[in-house]
Fold this sequence. Notes:
Layout: H1 5-22, H2 28-35, H3 39-67, H4 69-89, H5 93-111, H6 114-121, H7 124-156, H8 160-163, H9 165-179, H10 193-216, H11 221-243, H12 257-273, H13 277-286, H14 292-316, H15 323-339, H16 353-376, H17 383-416, H18 422-451
Helix pairs in contact: 1-5, 1-6, 1-7, 1-9, 3-4, 3-5, 3-10, 3-17, 4-5, 4-9, 7-14, 10-11, 10-17, 12-15, 12-16, 12-17, 12-18, 13-14, 14-16, 15-16, 15-18, 16-17, 17-18
Amino acid sequence: MRKWIPLAAVCLGAFMLLVDVSIVNVALPPMSADLHSSFTALQWVVDVYALVLAALLMAFGSLGDRLGHRRLYLVGLVVFAVASLACGLAPNAGTLIAARAVQGIGGAAMMTSTTALIAGAYQGRDRGTAFGVWGAVNGAAAAVGPVLGGLLTDWFGWRSIFVVNVPVAAVAVALTLGRLHAAPPQARGRLDLPGAAAFTVFAAALTYGLIESGEHGWGSARVLGPVLLAVLALAVFAAVELRTARPLLDLSLLRNRTFLGLTLGGLLLTAGAFAQLTYTSIWLQQVVGLGPLSAGLAVCPLAVAAFVVAPVSGKVFDRAAPQLPIGVGLLLIGTGTLLLRLVSAGSSWTALLPGMLVVGVGVGLSTPTLISTALAAVPRERAGMASGAVNTGRQLGYALGIAVLGSVFQAGLRQAGAGPDRHAAFADALDRVYLAAGLTGLAAGLLVLALVRRAPAPADGHPAGPQAARLQPVAAPE
């Protein structure tokens, strides 16, 4: 059993960082009441973690190649634990948001290191087994997150969802130091710091502008200024990447229509499938009257369906063109989200069930094949870069989705007015959210079906299609 201790060290960190994407959703109402925070602050508590993950994944992947992934993983664990403790002790919303951002830094360092550490620790059949366990842990994290958040919040208060990370991280650090051997760095040369800085400014400014649009309107300087800064930063990023010898992202990859379609599909997938859960959770608790645990269980069918369907889809679509499971899955995500519009002023949580199940089936079909197909579509020496780009797109899609849907939600509440029927106002606002998210999923499906084509088989025979999907997480940003 000792040979599996390194896997346990890696899986503990992976589980912890992915659970923290979704564990916060069910704790938002009690958190808001305790800290007297605004709706915009609630958005940032969820969004800043995913935003920092997205902004730093490519940069930290490159940094791990230079410093060593074990060292980066340990640093990530320590930063994540300290930030989690700061979240649990936060006296106000501003401190909590800042601590969540630091959590994202630690999470990005861990996320970029996990696959490299497993590949270095195991060989042959053991490596396949290790990656299978790691993939299952990633999928379980999405399913457990809302329920675990509800349990902890109900029993010990919302602060416990952060404090619990401290002992878990301590165990992971001890196991990593004791059993996970360090491999020499795989790359040399300077890190693309200008590119990393430009991409971080782009992601942060765009998300900030989108979130502020819900409260201040699109014509406000607090919205237009950050959006213009985001456009400028994106232009700078493109210019830097075209000129540097070792870019974070080789922009020539975007001329590959399959890779471009999968990157955009991944971004829109998380925006359409998962971003709406934040506002669903608020409705379940503030309008329907469920507690945090019941609210977590109400949205759990999505993750459970994805977890069940993902391994089956790999076998069913093993010989199919990859755009079919991905594109059909995205179309199901859009259809399922539109089914969530069954929610009305008098609805209970059961109105969510059909839509959640269909969305979960779509996630289970599309997500596993997406990354493996992207890797197969690019030269093998660019596989790490391609994986980082697609994962960055997925995390950024989640962050931007929360921001855009939050603006839609607030606009719906304002248009409903300040009448006495609060239930109707929430239902109308949610209807707009589900419509926007559903159309996003449908658009993503059509985009993938139009752009993605089967990639040629790799020369070494290593699986690059759906059968390689077992090595990838099956649920949200994740």
